[in-house]
Structure formats: C-alpha cells, structure tokens
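User: Run a structure prediction on this.
Assistant: Running it now.
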Amino acid sequence: MVFELKFADIGEGVHEGEILKWHVKEGDIVQLEQLLVEIQTEKVNAEITSPVSGQVHKIHKREGEIINVGEILVSIDTDVGKKAPDSKPKPVQEKQVESEAEEIDDSPLFKASKPMKVVKRSREISKRQKGKVLAAPIVRRLAREAGVDLSDIPGTGPGGRITRKDLEAYMTSQAKKRQPRIAPKQYTTGGEEKLPLRGIRRTIASAMQRSKLTAAHFTLMDEVDMSAMDRLRKDLKPLAEKHGAKITYLPLLIKCLIPALKKFPYLNATIDDEKNEIVIKHYYNIGIAVDTEHGLMVPVIRNADQKSIWELATEIKELAEKARSGKLTLEDVTGGTFSLTSIGNIGGMMATPVIRWPEVGILGVMQRKLRPVVIEENGKPEIAIRPMMFLSLSCDHRLVDGAYAARFMKEIRRYIENPALISFEEDF
C-alpha cells in the first residue's frame, strides 16, 4: 500500500511553504515519526515527520520548490520494510557497538536484545558514521547555509549530538586554517553573482509585496524630546537589576503606545476584505521587529497591556533570542495587532516602514541624537541641546486618515515626553 503524505493546513492563514531540506531520499526505509523534511512557511519553519513506516516511494517536491496546502509531499510504500513475525534482530557485533557508541549510548529510544558494551565517547567520528550525525534542526540549517559537513564535526552534546557551539568552534578553527599569514586586500570588479531567492528572504519578499499591493500606505513623521524618558530609564536601572531585566526604550515605548491605541482604536484594527468589515481589536498584541542574520522576524508580545515594564523587557529579550536562534513558533509570530520597528541602534534619521499586513499601522523608532532645539522658558524662546528622536508612523489609508494618524502620533508624543502620565491614562 502506498501512503500519500500531503502538506496539511497548519492554520493562521498559511497556504504554502518552501521545501528547505529533505532528510530522506527515494528508496530510503523510514520509521514512524522519523523526520522527513523541513518546510519554510510565511510564519515559521515546520518539521514534517512520517506518520507511517515504510519505504520512500516518491518525493513529489524538490528543495527550493513551493508546495501548497493539500498537495502531496511524499509517497511511502508501507508494505516495504516490514519484518516477518518470526524474524530476529541481527546480533550486534562488539566492534560495531564501539564505533557507534557515541551516537546511541544516551538515546532512550535505543534498545538491545542483550547487554552491550558501552564505550567512552570519542571526539573522533569514523567515516562509517558520516550521514548519521545527531544535531538539532537549527544547527543543520546553519551548517547547510555555511556549506559545512556536520559529519566532520565532533559533537560534545548528549549522545555525541552536535551543538551550535560545536559548529561555531569548528567554523572558527577552519577560518583560522584558511587565513593567510599576510592577508592582502582583495577587490572584485565586474561580473554578477546570482543567488536563489529562498527561505526567509523569499518569505519576507512575498509578505512585503502583498502588504504594498493591499494596503494604501502613507507615512507620518514627527520628532520627540527624550529627556524625560532618559531620566526615567536612569531611575529604573537599579530596580531593573533587582528584577533581572534590562530597560531599553522598547518596553517604555510599548507602555506609551497602549493608552494611545485605546484612544485611537482604528490603529489597532484590521480590514476583512472578504466580508468588507472593519475588525477593531480590544486586545493589544504588539509585534517587535528583530534583525537576524537570516532576515527580519517579527515576534509578538501578547496582551502587552496586561504586563508590567519588567515582564515586557524580559519577554522582548527572550523573543529576540528565539528569533536569532531560529526557534520561534507559530504562536510567537501570529496574532499581532500593531507593530514597532526600531533601527535606532544602527542609525538613520527617518524611514517609511512597511505595514505588517493585515495590521494597519507600524511605528518606526529612529536614532536618539542630541540636537539643538528651540524651547520656551517663561515665555521666552531659547536654543537648548536636547536628546531628540524621530518617529515614523506608517498607516493603511483605507482605514486611517491623515488627521487621525496625526492625533495618534501627538498622543504618543505626549506620553513619551511625560511618562508619568502612563499610570493615569484612564483619567485622560
């Protein structure tokens, strides 16, 4: 019997995915729950395991191809590879056990029919073991992108598993070996380099194009005096250390953002184009754009209005670490109602952020910089040096008018320049 495994609907509007990596090939014998393939969807990476045991009959989609929900991924012949009822497992030779002990001695899934000799792990991997290495999917992905053969790396994790630190140490050592004693400057002129648009970069390209084609973008810019916010950060520093948190601008900006969104609900909404409805969200899930080596990821802080400044700071840090290590789940990146993107630590005066559709607004936070500004003291204007920051608010003009966006920006500014008001937002 040939079983056809189809790409299932994983929810949250995911309709297609890109085949990143096959872990089996046609003719291979596979076991129940064995990892078959990694698929990059618009939201997260999905690892597909086998629901049956048997032999891989046909792989229907190759690496780099797009598969839609409902299409066949792989066909598995479930009649092949079955053991006869009276068959007995082949005896394990002691020599074989010694060479493979690194891989199986810590595995709770490995069972032998008789006692076996367990040998101390060796950091050397025999040639016969190549292709059987143990490593987490993120480690395999990083190695593949770097062009590294994992079977060349000694694993120091449980059961000889190759950790991310093992991979990084190996790449560092190889780089040192290849480095010439005198490294002359090299310049490449002319020619072209063609790279496949794959993985996260293709996902980002698709999402950005859909947003620009769907939402009627416009961007409003303003500047804000960060003096009061800087004083607040300084005052909160000793308290943050007690909570094991680090207070950056982001959790404080979220605290300023929530009361403004409550007063201007059209910024915390979506448009249902099929039903021709405006859907106003009375919950506040704030997306935080994270710059990773693989591309921009936007994990979501759920129910941000119900969390303390310390909880926000901790969750921002944890989600950023998950994004950079490729461990974000579907839950982490879906359900956002409004987004923040910050490039202030890199630089840049202004920007026009692209809305994270189907949301209708995104706030860009630029670089904080000392600038001369005109202030009014006792009715007399004078020039002062203040820490200033530009904000860029992109909105979907189908729902948000310019005046509405300007009032929303003014409200955000009011809280940033007077953060003491945050605790009393219900009174204003």
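The two ends are 69 Å apart (CA to CA).
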